[in-house]
Amino acid sequence: MADRTIVYEYISRVEGQGSLEVTISGGEVVDAKLKIFEAPRFFEAFLKGRKALELPELTARICGICPIAHVITAAKAVENALEIALDEKTIALRKALALSGIMQSHALHVYFLAAPDFLGYPSAIAASKDLADVVRRGFRLKRVANMVSEYIGGRAVHPVTLTVGGFTKPPHADGLEKVLNALENALRDALETVKLVSGFNYPEFEPNHVNVALSSGDGYAITEGFAKASSGEYFESRDYRRYVSEEQVPHSNTKRSMFKNNSAFEVGPVSRFNLNYESLCNTAKEAAEKAGIKPPVKNPFKSTIVRAVEIVQAIEEMRSILGEGVSIPPPRKTRFRQSSGSALTEAPRGLLYHSYSIDRDGNVLNADIVTPTAHNSWRIERDVFELVPSVAHLDDESLKRLLGMLVRAYDPCISCSVHAFTVKLNRT
Amino acid sequence: MVDKLKVGVFKLTSCSGCQMVLVHLEESLLEVLKHIDLKYFRMVSDDDLPNEPLDAALVEGAVTNEEEAAMLKKIRRLSRFLVATGACAATGGVNAMKNITPEGEVESIVYSSPEYVRSGKAFGLNEYVKVDAYLYGCPIDRNELVNTLMSLVLRVPPYIPGLTVCMECKMKGNECVFLTRREPCLGPVTVGGCGALCPSNNVACEGCRGVLKGTNVNGLVSAWEKAGVSPELIRIKLRKYTVYPVAGR
To answer: Which fold does the domain B5-154 belong to in CATH?
Structure first.
């Protein structure tokens, strides 16, 4: 078989600007580059010298799709540094906000980024001519998710109410009934979504991955807990750097995340589902069962089903949290001292790490942020190596389409991944 | 029937949040699409960049390198009307905060081998091309987005906000975060249109919508000084989404 290079320039239907370049020789991949040509944004550089209290607001701007995850993680890291403990109601309300963010992002991914591949359209907008009901359902789910984000966070993109120590303003009790009704109605749409995506035709591919996700003894872990790996390790955010390292490869702009210095790993919905299945609510478990998935899900393409199941979980859990009422105490006072703190949470795309050092006047001395897409980037590339030999007979266009779907299965968030660096994997 | 307006959505250095606001129009997006043909919107569609001219381009993001400058010029040539969409496109946004740090130093904070990484200063679009209209804010406001799109469809000039955030805040009857808590709030000099979202949530305005022409930034800063706001905090406030033109700072 002749050598060939498949280039997917500016991968569509992912957030941000990236390309995939794969060189195949004798049916094997000899080179795979996930090139992210989006410009680096140097957050960690300009955060130095800013105020710690600005961190939630500023790190939100890393990503317009998952700002909620950054806001919460930054606030938690500063709270950990200053040893500020929050009350249970505030913690629960933050989780509801985080879940609304996951629901927003998953609805976007399932209906607008992934579904066109399986339904055979270039976009959901193009599909709306024939499948108006399906596309409208996607929009309805997004609208309900945004409604909850706006209700708790003040705004869906770059929320404003979440601050170090709590919330600047509690949600208005008057709006609660409307939100709860919308969530109740959204459950039907969410279950329809699971049904829709479980009928998609998924490529066969079952690589062995190390899954890493937050876990806790108390529910489906999103904003609280410790990291857990499918290979058996457990660690807290303060020990993160003992388990996850980054490497810059000479003559490229890579920062590659590695687990225990040597292995690629996967974070995100599949990792959460595989490691925390038992913590899912019954409705979500039943939906997963009907869709024919159970842990461990190995096929990365089936992350689309897991996302749909997580929408069900998010809705049920938001209903349960908000159903208890939304009155919370005012934010805790902050008293600065020289300190360091970190936090791990689950962003829609998986494990997110923030760590800061601050001085006694509340100035940021150092910032370290690792996003889910950075965690997954080596895993995506390894998948290309493992998938291609079984599909090397495909023509260039078909192979390109399949590889695009593979990259998309991780729902990469490129703005996030280049908050600090560009990824250019270049290995021979 | 009049032809639909051909529109492209483009992204430079940014977080995609403003494009998300377009997606967040949700079902009303389907209404908007009765009048608009989205020719290019890479985040949600496979369609390649068209060769035919566009009626309008919505460009999100700051320009931070030569490739982006070249891309922007290409978009400009292709488009009859160009809308700088969001704070990054309008002023460079948060990306511009690093403009005051020496190059090299920025890279070495983030990379172990900074010699391989390059990044120029971050600028708003008008540093490179003529901008026909602005959508302000980080992120943009969805109502303003719809209004601008509809203005384009009707071929009338888009609405330009003429109020400050402070005026909108007063009209809402909010308690003033500066007068009651001595928090430096940029509301009095910032372009309105957001409905004073942040002050309405007990958060001081951070000026993400940029300076409204004719407002007195120096006067505001003097008021902060008199209220005892530290010079360090003032400096930080004036360099966030926008670098404010204040004498001697």
So the answer is: Rossmann fold (3.40.50)
